[in-house]
Amino acid sequence: MVLLGAVILTALAGRLGAPYPAFLAVGGAALAFVPGVPNLRLDPELALALFLAPILLDAGFDASLRDLRHSWQPVLGLAVGAVVVTTLAVAVVARIVVPDMPLAAAIALGAIVAPPDAVAALAVLKHAPMPHRLATILRGESLLNDAASLLLYRLAVGAAVAGGFHAEQVAPSFLLGVAGSLVAGPLLAIAFVAITRRVTDPPTAIVLQFVAAFGLWLAAERLQMSGVLVVVTFAMMVARKAPGVTAPRARIVSYAVWDTAVFVINVLAFVLIGIQIDPILARLNGTDQWQAIILAAAVFVTVTVVRIAWVLPTSGLRGFGLGKTGDRSRLGAGMAVSWAGMRGIVTVAAALALPQAFPYRDLAVFTAFVTVLGSLILQGLTLSPLLRYLRLPDDDPVGREAGRARAAAYGAALESLESGEDCASTDALRAEFRTALSEAEAHEEGRAPESLPADAARRDAIIAARTKVLEMRRQGEIGDDAYFLLEEEFDWAELNATPRKDS
């Protein structure tokens, strides 16, 4: 029932052009007040591994090293500078509202709510596209700010639970752990690709991917390294090494499974934190409830204002703006990025991972959830209208590169066919590639069309063939086993002849 409700909420979010995590957060909060819903608790030691390991592996695999290098200044500024400033600002506000809160606990709260989540922002971008460079900055920020915030989080939580912090004792092992993580991730990725390169069975390949995600995180934490850095660097290296050795069938199926897994993980995270809200409020008396509400509101305002104050003055940095556009476009880019700072699953997972002995744990969990909910509703529902209003220019770099690369690929394909045997089918295929290359030569940017000339006819033929086989099955001329075999063949053939945007 929970997953069914999540699917309905996600569909509603899609129709409204809103980020689906916003609706999941509202649904999770509503569950807290439904009679009979059990107060489920997750072992804090498992929360980060369960929620963040697969999320970060998926995000790291999709990251572009080249684009990140081009935008390293704004990405580093947001991922490290903004996280540190936000953490400190929230810690100050928390100490003002709750004077008895230990400094370490206040810093931990700041680290929990500091990192924005790109999942929500990218969900909005499906309905109101943002320039590619700005989207790259948001993806890079989301990938790296998790590492910065969770490193601060680990140190602060440890100090809060232990009752003290000694930098001279922690610093050497901390720095060694970070350095070790940056080395271990890529090396393990190379080993993983070498070991799994002969695995062509999709279920086996996918299971190994999930085993790697959880296993790497747990091993890194056990060895006092950063699970975030190990998993992210591992995923980025696998993304560079795997394409040439992964079986196409396994890759296509894997993408679908990982998209589903990320969605289910988001659902579970928001449900688990949402159902804790009512018990938390029940444990607080009247005065404490007001204090919790005031703290949550103050923290939400702080993280929103700090991000705007950090981003807008730096929107003129090289790599942040939009090419050679003017001051107005740079200001618009800064407004878009500053308003795309919705909090999400990283904040939720960090709050759930707080140990039971953490000072003011209920207050921290409540504040984290309200910050996530507030940012997803306020910013998530208004980001799309803001982007439409700003009308930021975009020269479609991905489309241009893909079009030119497609032309080069068609050229290589045609060259391989020229040395092949002469027959009617080969001649027809040569003619298709020559026509596509002629279109590319006529295009001012040399872009080749996504579809080959006969793809539309192929789709019509496949539909007719599929209809005939389905009729034979209904009439009992063929059995289910034969039908499913042919259906899979038709599916692959139709996907091959269908442009990506229509598939």
From TrEMBL:
At the top level, the lineage of the source is Bacteria
Q: Where in the cell is it found?
A: Cell membrane
* PANTHER family registered for this protein in UniProt: SODIUM/HYDROGEN EXCHANGER, SODIUM_HYDROGEN EXCHANGER 7
UniProt membrane topology term = Multi-pass membrane protein
Name the coiled-coil region(s): none
Spell out where the chain crosses the membrane.
75-97, 103-125, 146-167, 173-195, 255-277, 289-310, 331-357, 363-383
What keywords does the record list, in alphabetical order?
Cell membrane, Ion transport, Membrane, Sodium, Sodium transport, Transmembrane, Transmembrane helix, Transport
The record's Gene3D superfamilies line, in alphabetical order, gives: 6.10.140.1330
Q: Which organism is it from?
A: Methylobacterium persicinum
Domain annotation Cation/H+ exchanger transmembrane: ranges: 5-388
Which InterPro entries does UniProt cross-reference here? Answer: Cation/H_exchanger_CPA1, Cation/H_exchanger_TM
Q: What is this protein called?
A: CPA1 family monovalent cation:H+ antiporter
